[in-house]
Design goal:
By secondary structure, the protein is α+β, with helices and mostly antiparallel strands. The protein has a single domain, classed as Alpha-Beta Plaits, CATH 3.30.70. A hairpin with a 2-residue loop joins strand 2 and strand 3. The C terminus is likely disordered.
């Protein structure tokens, strides 16, 4: 079974939680981490700044299209959300196998 890491962004923590919950409920992802990140962009000669939530999603390679579909369905932006997939390599495969499922489950338990 091949694994991958998928990165996406959300405009808010509630939106990130909605995406994470949908991924886990559908069993499309094994774990989801969220973190606040600063988004800096140069557009038409102007620099813009915004805060976004970065989602780091660990999933089986064969489920990556399902992950993308769930992100698009649950993303509030009318524009195409960022979805970047990185395949598991020998350097990160042990980490993925060991930690899939543990990170988001711990976070979910702490919220209840």
């Amino acid at each position: 079974m091949k694994h991958c890491i998928i990165f996406s962004t959300a405009d808010s923590q509630p939106e990130a939680d909605k995406i994470a919950d949908a991924l886990l409920k559908a069993r499309a992802a094994e774990s989801v981490q969220t973190s606040i990140t600063e988004f800096i962009i140069s557009l038409k000669g102007e620099t813009g700044y915004a805060t976004q939530i970065l989602l780091t999603i660990k999933a089986e390679e064969e489920l990556s299209l399902a992950v993308a579909r769930i992100i698009k369905t649950n993303h509030s932006s009318s524009e195409m959300p960022q979805i970047t997939k990185i395949p598991a390599t020998p350097e990160n495969l042990d980490y993925i196998r060991t930690n899939c499922g543990a990170i988001y489950e711990r976070r979910s338990r702490s919220r209840t």
